[in-house]
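Entry type: protein chain
Record version: 2
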Amino acid sequence: MTARVLLLHGYQHLRPRDHWMWWLAEELRARRVPVQYPQLPAPGDPVLRDWSAVAAGELEMLGGGERIVIAHSLGTVLWRHLEAHGAAADRVLLVAPPGPERLGAIGDFAAAASATLRDGATMVARERDPYRDGPLEAIADRWGAPGVVLPGAGHLNVDDGHGAWPSLLGWTLTGETEWRLGEGARSLDA
């Protein structure tokens, strides 16, 4: 079955070439894996309705085959909203989901973060994240998804110096990987 991938970015993301999402899109395209990496409208002033319309259209364009969604930061909340409204994917990876305390100022996104995920989603985040006050375990429990905690602090973005991410490429291509940013990743039970 041919994998098809949708990448959903987060708040203030202008698709910088140094970000792991750009790198992943290029790596997948080099392997002839269809990938959609849309620029969501007004990333510095997001409107859930507008982001949802673009993301739903991009998901539709993926067509048949194994559908994989990889979302970062506010894109993880967008995915929860889409899924609550009937969107589906075969595999979902939610990278660095923001804590609920960070969503209050971002329009309708706070309400969208309340749905429980269906089976098949996994979270990956650092131990400490400037966009999450509590541990990943708290979000993983609330969202009903298993998680992988990577050592250190950061939001898994360009500001952290986080670009190429070979273990993410491995997960995307095979569904399995040994998550790495260094040593010490640990899994959480949902």
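Comment: The CA atoms of residues 36 and 58 lie 7 Å apart.
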